[in-house]
Write a structure and sequence with these properties.
14 strands; 3 domains; three-stranded antiparallel beta sheet; alpha/beta; single chain; 50% helix
């Protein structure tokens, strides 16, 4: 294995805050007085709403009160100073200090900790020593390709998002793959626990407060991402935003943070930086089970208007559930699949192992020509960059679906939902999940027949390179595996045999079946 690339020494928090303030100041210089007032008013409005719903610290409220007085004062220099004070506070909040020592310690003790966690309920394994956490987590795809690119530039890893466990699983997977530490955003609520705060803060995490909806905060997060990439720190962020509530593979991505890779690359080219290239690596995370599935799908199916943007009372908030889930999942061979998709440049072109962009015919192209003017100078063009980012987003969605790993729980749930929905043809999903319990029975033979069709279709797609799978050869085996997985954790039985019928929990079945939506299976609803 090649030497593991290293990231640069992290900056001091004051340096990060100063960098964010400088970027903010450059934007504000282009605003007229009215636009500056609107920027501050947007912050005041959204922060007051956040205070009412979630509360806020005295320091936060003082900054918002100061912004209110600045707007009433009307003097530009007072408003500029107020905005900069807020951005500086955001920068200090977002930043967390990475520690190489803590990272090495965590990667050394994590396998042992996982072993003890699992063998605590399976003592024979402790005696035989046959438990290997890395066997439960399969890292596949373009691993060697990504490792090579980490020597030529900075990696922006953009995974699908199922669970709050995704970040630690990814961190361990990347370590297994021989890749360096990555920085990544983690919800601010995860730092409320002092132990989590200590470790997350030193393992590359930075804070993201999804309750802050104002433009100043969103711009500060984008600026922080650009600054991290400019310092050649590899980064992870989830472009779908929050966890997938419905279990669907992401189709719509947040393009704000995604565009920071393009910005960082152009700035590096313009400034003559060493190895300025940023390479985008889509990544899929596939699991037989999802810890928060019950809470997520309940939220997705809520009929009280919008689903909650932040769910702070799901299974992840209950340590006992996390431990139970981890025990069950890690007792299953290859229960989590992390697939690194083929890397791209920030415009969406594929790249080879030397970091060269390739055209559709596989021929090298100079990607710098996309952003240079007739005189060879790198020029910023927001409209052009939005088009490039949209193109990149579309290529990423294609990669997600191509490298999604279909597992037994997904296929069995899809087949069961097909039969269930077919027996209630005039009901949409919102009404189907509320069908009376006594009507939630489907014939086993119909499910097996449908499952046989689904398995055959998935395998044809896999042969054509349009999806991945980890399915057994027969419908009976796939269904038996799925039921064993479902019964190992969820408090609600997703599938329960009753004579020659299956009784289903329609919400859980709907959640897991959604992993197969969009593959031409003729899905109901």
């Amino acid at each position: 294995m090649a030497d593991r690339p290293s990231i640069l020494r992290p900056p001091r928090p004051d340096d990060v805050a100063a960098a964010l303030v400088a970027r903010h100041r450059a934007r504000v210089e282009r605003l007229d007085d009215r636009a500056l007032v609107e920027l501050l008013e947007d912050t005041i409005y959204h922060e007051h709403h956040r205070f009412e719903e979630y509360g806020g610290s005295d320091a936060e409220q003082r900054l918002v009160d100061q912004a209110t007085r600045a707007v009433l004062d009307g003097h530009r220099h007072v408003m500029e100073a107020s905005g900069e004070a807020i951005v500086r506070a955001y920068g200090l909040e977002v930043y967390r200090p990475f520690s190489h020592t803590a990272f090495k310690l965590a990667t050394r003790i994590l396998p042992g900790a996982l072993t003890r966690l699992v063998t605590a309920t399976d003592p024979p394994r402790l005696l035989t020593g046959d438990f290997d956490p890395s066997r439960r987590l399969k890292v596949q795809g373009a691993v060697d390709h990504v490792r090579a690119l980490a020597q030529h530039g900075t990696i922006l890893l953009v995974p699908t998002h199922l669970s709050n466990l995704d970040s630690p699983l990814l961190g361990f997977a990347l370590h297994m793959a021989g890749l360096p530490p990555f920085t990544y955003g983690a919800g601010l609520n995860l730092f409320d626990n002092p132990i989590m705060d200590f470790w997350l803060s030193r393992l590359g995490a930075y804070t993201v407060d999804r309750r802050k909806r104002n433009r100043l905060y969103k711009d500060s997060l984008k600026d922080y991402s650009v600054d991290v990439l400019r310092r050649r720190c590899h980064q992870i962020f989830f472009p779908g935003g929050t966890r997938s509530r419905s279990g669907l593979v992401e189709k719509s991505l947040k393009k704000g943070l995604l565009g920071t890779g393009l910005t960082a690359w152009q700035e590096g080219l313009r400034d003559g930086a060493d190895r300025p290239d940023v390479f985008v690596v889509p990544c899929t995370i596939s699991m037989h089970l999802v810890l928060e599935a019950e809470s997520l799908v309940d939220d997705a199916m809520a009929r009280n208007g919008r689903s909650r943007f932040i769910i702070d009372d799901d299974e992840f908030s209950r340590p006992r559930d996390v431990v139970s889930f981890t025990r069950q999942v890690l007792n299953l061979d290859e229960s989590v699949f992390v697939t690194l998709c083929e890397p791209m440049d920030v415009i969406g072109n594929p790249v080879d192992r030397q970091g060269r962009s390739l055209d559709p015919g596989g021929n090298p192209v100079d990607r710098r020509d996309y952003v240079r003017d007739a005189h060879g100078n790198v020029r910023s063009d927001p409209q052009r960059d939005r088009i490039f980012t949209q193109r990149l987003s579309e290529r990423m969605v294609q990669a997600y679906h191509r490298d999604n790993v279909v597992l037994s729980t997904h296929a069995a749930a899809f087949a069961t939902w097909q039969v269930f929905a077919g027996r209630h043809p005039n009901r949409d999903p919102y009404r189907l999940v509320r069908v009376d319990p006594q009507r939630r029975m489907v014939p086993l033979d119909e499910v097996l027949a449908e499952l046989e069709r689904v398995v055959a279709h998935v395998k044809r797609l896999s042969d054509a390179g349009r999806v991945r799978h980890g399915l057994a050869n027969t419908a009976e085996t796939v269904l038996a595996q799925a039921m064993r997985h479902f019964d190992s954790f969820h408090t609600r039985r997703a599938l329960a045999p009753v004579d020659r019928f299956l009784q289903l929990d329609p919400r859980l079945i709907y959640y897991y079946r959604n992993r197969l939506v969009g593959y031409g299976l003729g899905e109901h609803r």
